[in-house]
Structure formats: structure tokens, C-alpha cells
Amino acid sequence: MFGNSNLKEKVACTISKYRLLNLNETVLIGLSGGPDSICLLHILHILSRDLKLSLHAVYVDHGLRPDDVPQEIMFCRNVCMDLKIDFDSREVNVKTHPSIKKHGLQATARELRYAALSEAAHAVKASKIALGHTKNDNGETLLINLIRGAGMKGLSGIAPARGKIIRPLLEITRQEILSFLESRGLDYINDPSNLTEKYLRNTLRRRIMPELTRLNPDIIDTLFRTGEILRQEDEYLEIQVTKSLMRLFSRKTPTRIELFLAPMETMTTILLRRVLRRALLEIKDLPTLSFHHIEAIVSLIQKGQNGDFLDLPHGLKAIRRYSLLVLTTEKPRQLKEYEFIPNQELYLEEASLVLKASTTVRPERTDGKRNAIFDANKLQIPLIVRRRKPGDYFLPSGFGKRKKIQDFFVDQKIPRDERDTVPLICSGENIIWIVGHRTDNRFLPDSNTTNFLLISSHSARD
After folding, report:
1. pTM, 2 dp
2. Over the stretch 305-358, which tens digit does the pLDDT of each residue have?
3. Which residues of 72-106 are buried (b: 16+ CB within 10 A; e: fewer)?
4. Separation of alpha carbons 457 and 335, rounded Å
5. CA 266 to CA 289: how far, in whole Å?
6. Which residues pair with 19 in a beta bridge?
7. pLDDT value at position 5?
8. Taking the CA atoms of the chain, what radius of gyration do you get in angstroms?
9. CA torsion angle for 282, 288, 292, 293 (degrees, to 10)?
10. What residues have CB less than 8 Å from 182, skipping those under 6 apart?
11. Cα–Cα distance for residue pair 9/15, rounded to 1 Å
12. CA–CA separation, 47 vs 272, rounded Å?
């Protein structure tokens, strides 16, 4: 059996190994009254003398076992009173929470429990939240993630620390905990929900783990070592992801990121998957994509052609655009149709452009992109500003023959998702200018022109 000193030293070693605590910290302990949390409470109480810790404990009621909870709270309160540790209880309502339909009872309970612990920690100004996860819990989590499907992060088991959360008992087995409690004569509560096989973890614990233990008596230690190796390799790969992302971002907003394609095209698939997952975290309020959707983006990068795109869940679109991969949740923009009258300004919201037209009797030098000049007598006023239509064509200046707008956009390498925002200025049904690109030869001034129309465009942000 494990006495006070032996288990205390093991937990102290875990705290030191993973740097879980510093001197003079305030720690909130998640206390359910079960053997793991009771052991954690007592061990941290013993260690608090050396580490000068200020301890608090909290019980979270999930609203699932109303008949049992009052007695459990009273039990936890009395234990804390004996140890002179401040105690509080919090309530959450799992059954009525909106996310239960999507994520299920267990995941919703976990989400609400962690939120309640965070609030309680804030209330007592705790810098750490200590939970009683054990080496057995770690092995079970690894296997659950393997059964459900997971990458290296999921197969590394439970992290010793994540943010404020720490798990000082993670290198302690359940049997060591029970031996410690027995040797000290400490009472605890058995949660009746642990006896049902309604939940996967309980089925694993009651049926599968005994069989694995028969095959390998050291299975808990084996799974722990495996998780440790995978966690260290995962951390190494995450460092490589950080280094890679530093040279990948071209542009970034809360709803759109642009990544340089060239480095990703030569990147190993293993690293590329991680780079994409990390990059997608930059898009505001975007839920995690499935493995299959990440693989689809990988395929777009490795095998796609310019202009290829993917419509993904949650309104996300992945677009291969020449030298860039664009990932965006922005809704596609389409230019509306406007009337355009000379000597007035016209704001094109969808293109973020301002157009201005003015008449003159003297020609001015223009570049045909930012500004252009036309023979006013050849034009039908008001002019029309619109987006492209099927079958559109024009006679590009300096080209000598008609060209389809679609072909012109392709030749000019205008990204497919931007083509509906390129303004076409028309006289009647005829296009006179593709703003920002080329004028139509039929409407340019000639030696007989006496009235000129100058049209200019500039960014609405200028």
C-alpha cells in the first residue's frame, strides 16, 4: 500500500516535471467527492505547506442526479471544513443546453463543467485549476480517441497541463489512489453513473481494460509511455507548423486568409494538414473541419488547377488562385446594375470603387485602366455599370478584333471569384470599358471627336 510520503513524493515529482505549480499560487480544486478528487484534495493540502499554496475547492452540479447531489455537496463541504479549505458549489443545466443535440450529453456536460470551473477560479483569483485525472483515465482517453478516430494529438492522451488546467495525479494509477485513501482511512463517494455501460468510457473501463490487462499486465504504463512519446512528437511538429506559417501568410482578416501556394506544394502531407488546421483558426467563429475536408483542401493544393475551388461546411470556401490559396467565409459579391450620369460620382459598394465622369472639349492623357477617355457623341446616356453576362464581348483597344469577356478575364488572370465584381461600363448593350483593364476600341476618340467624356476610378478606401 502507498503511504502518505510515497504518494506525496510521486505527485510532487509530477508537479516539478511538468512545471504545474509555482510557490504562492492560488489553486482551485475540482471536487466531486470521488476517490480521485478526494485524493487530490488531500495531497495538495499536504503539499501546500511546502509550496505555500492557497487552496479552494468547488463542486459542479450538472443537474443530472438531483437525488444524489445534495448529499455529495454536504460530504465535500465537510471534508473541506476539516482541512480548512474554502468550498463552493456551482450549478449548470446540461439537459436544457442548446449544444446537447449536436454534441451529446457527455461532451456538453464537460463543456459546461469547464466553464463553471473557469468562473469559479476567476471568483477566487486562482491561477490554476487542479483536476483529478489519473494514469488510468489517460489510458482510457487514448483508447477512446483511437476507437473514434484521432490524430497524434488525440492519441497522446490527457495533457498534464493546458492553460490554467493542471492534472497533478496524471502519473498515479487508480489502485495507488485507493491504497492511499485506505491507508489514511479517508472516505469517498462512488458515483453510481460510473456503473452503467451507457457511456463508452464505462464500457471500456469495465470490459475492455480487464482484457487488455490480461494480455499486458502493464497496459496502463504502456499506454502512458505511448502517449508521452506522441505528445512530445506532436509538440515538435507544432513548432515546425509555427515556423512554416511565418512564411505562408500573404493576407489575413477575420473572415479571409491568403496563403502562398509554392511552399505548400512541396510540403509533406503530414505537415500540410497541421498547417491548414492552424491557419483556419485565424478565421473568426469557424468550427473545426473534419479530416475528410482537410484532405480535400490538401488535394486542391497538390493537384488543383488555377480557379479550382471547394465549397466546405460552415460557409467556408477554399480557392486556388494563381500563387495563392484563399480560405474565406465571405459571401460571394456580385455587382448590381447602376445608372451612371456624367458630372456625378458613383459609388460601387460591391467593388469598393468610386467612378467619376466629366465632359470636356479637350482630350486628356489616360492609361485605360485607372482612367479612360471616350467620344461623348458615340455614347448613349445614361451609361450603365454592371457585372458580366453570358455572351458578353467587346473590341479591346489595340487588339483589332472582338473578344469574349470570359476569354479576356482568363487571359488577364482575373480570379474566378472576383469576376462578378469587375465593373463593365456600357453604352446601351455595348461595353465601352472594363474598369481597371481595357477600353473598347469603338468608343475611343478619333480625329473627328469634338466632345470628350473622361471617366476615372479610384478605390473607395482612398
Report:
1. 0.72
2. 888 889 999 999 999 988 999 999 988 888 999 999 988 889 998 888 999 999
3. bbebbbebbeebebebbbbebebeebeebeeeeee
4. 15
5. 23
6. none
7. 63
8. 33
9. -40
10. 1
11. 10
12. 44
- One-letter amino acid at 214 equals R
> Is there a contact between 337 and 386 (Cβ–Cβ < 8 Å)?
yes
The secondary structure of residue 396, as a DSSP letter, is B
Separation between Cα atoms, residue 276 and residue 423, nearest integer Å: 33
Q: Is the pLDDT of residue 196 over 80?
A: no
Provide the 3-class DSSP secondary structure of residue 249: strand
Q: Which residues of 333-347 are buried (b: 16+ CB within 10 A; e: fewer)?
A: eebeebebebeeebe
Q: Which residue segments constitute the domains of the chain, with CATH numbers given?
A: 4-233 (3.40.50.620), 250-328 (3.30.465.60), 338-459 (3.50.40.10)
- The DSSP code for 288 is P
Give the C-alpha separation, 447 to 142, whole Å.
82
Backbone φ, ψ for residue 86 (5° rounding): -60, 140
Task: Name the pLDDT band for 169 (thresholds 50, 70, 90).
Answer: very high
In sequence order, the 6+-apart residues with CB closer than 8 A to the CB of 263 are 244, 247, 248
Cell of 236: 515538435
